[in-house]
Amino acid sequence: MDKVVGILRGVAGVAADANAFREFFHWVTPHVLAAVRSQQQQQLLQLDSGGPVSASTGNNRTAPLHQIQDDLQKLEHNLWVIQTTITSTMHDLIDRLEWHSHRETEARHLRQIKDAVYDAEDLLDEYNYYALKVKVEASKNLGQDHSHGPVLEFLDSVNFNGNFSKVMEIQDRLKHVFDQSMGLGLHKTPKKFDRLVRPETCRVLDESQIFGREQELKELMQMLGVDGHKRGRPAAHTNTTEARRMELPVLPIVGMGGVGKTTMAQQICEDPEVRKHFHHRIIWICVSDEFEVNRLTKDALKSLGVKSEDTDTRDNLMVNLRDSVKSKKFLLVLDDMWDDVLKDEKGWRTFHRTLSNGLDGSMILVTTRSSKVANLVSDGNHYELKGLQDGVFWNFFKLCAFGSVQSWSNRPELQRIRPELERIGRAILPKLKGSPLAAKTLGRLLKCNRSIEHWEDILKRAVAIRTRGD
């Protein structure tokens, strides 16, 4: 038994990478075959002696050994294919499309790809759970007579017929969405700034979903002049420089890191009414911690379909940008603007003034953590995005940490401990300050191990956990 436990400790981390699946199945297959062989021999002996034959708890146990071995090998291969497809291909495609999720085609395919990937990851989690259960059960001191119990229960859980169809369906969906993306050339979509790391998405949530933000979304759209609420340019100011700065309205969304500013801006850009209002001319630029006017101008020109050369001077770039937006209605999103812009106020004013040739009703939407940045780029009016309220935040956190209802329905042992886990979860919640990113980050840590000990440990360390970005 000690040997079994020792092997299990080395192979139970199934979800760590694709090879872990192979390692686990290479270990578990001979143990499954030995356990089934032993049980079938016992049943034959009972039959020969005229005694009652105990009913098998699973149809898999009565199959020929060679068929069980073949089925396990097929299952191992298919899960390995799904894992490697997600790791090597789909995550890269998602990363590329997220940079351009404000565009209709990219946004639509991004949702389809994420749905397929999330379902695939849920399937992998299911087998992760099976491996974890084998580890836990085999590590108990049950004695030699019961040493086959955990692997037989694993065999019963696999349910080849049902799981094979589910695995093949997931594989087909991944292939379908990838082939679609290849056909449209989306796999060549450029990553605007490879040096920037975008935050990972909670696999149980689509980024386009807004939890408890309906009112904020409505208010922001009204401030942008959408939904029948017209917003013209402010009246002329007595100070000439200030008047020029105020010609093109700027709406900053201010909030702490991880509160959902970027997600809110993406939701605004994807709204059909917003797209129609701005004549389907939406420009998205990720500013981050480096405010560099030439780069921003080139990105804006590229989004407008205008080529620029590396040798172009700032003056040439500004003239091209001014001419490109002249008499056109547009929404420019400057995402994640940091305090670096405060060092170049003149550059900001030049950039802002160049865009003032646009049609009346054009807007700039800025997301930032800094109230100083908001005051610089606007007239002092900004929209503060706060953390999610308690009730909504708890529902969001539950989805991240517990997954869907379906993921628990067939696991009575998890249902028994869920009240205790919810108690721990509610104790963690206040430390996250309503931040969706914090909920997703902690949710992933909690979901990978649904033991009370693990959750208690996370609770103790939650104060020290810090997250960055949107």
TrEMBL record:
Residues 65-140 form the Disease resistance N-terminal domain. One of its GO terms (molecular function) is ATP binding. Residues 247-402 form the NB-ARC domain. InterPro entries: Apaf_helical (IPR042197), NB-ARC (IPR002182), P-loop_NTPase (IPR027417), Rx_N (IPR041118). One of its GO terms (biological process) is defense response to other organism. The keyword Repeat applies. The keyword Ligase does not apply. Keywords: ATP-binding, Leucine-rich repeat, Nucleotide-binding, Plant defense, Repeat. It comes from the Eukaryota. Belongs to the disease resistance NB-LRR family. This is Os04g0374000 protein. The lineage of its organism: Eukaryota, Viridiplantae, Streptophyta, Embryophyta, Tracheophyta.
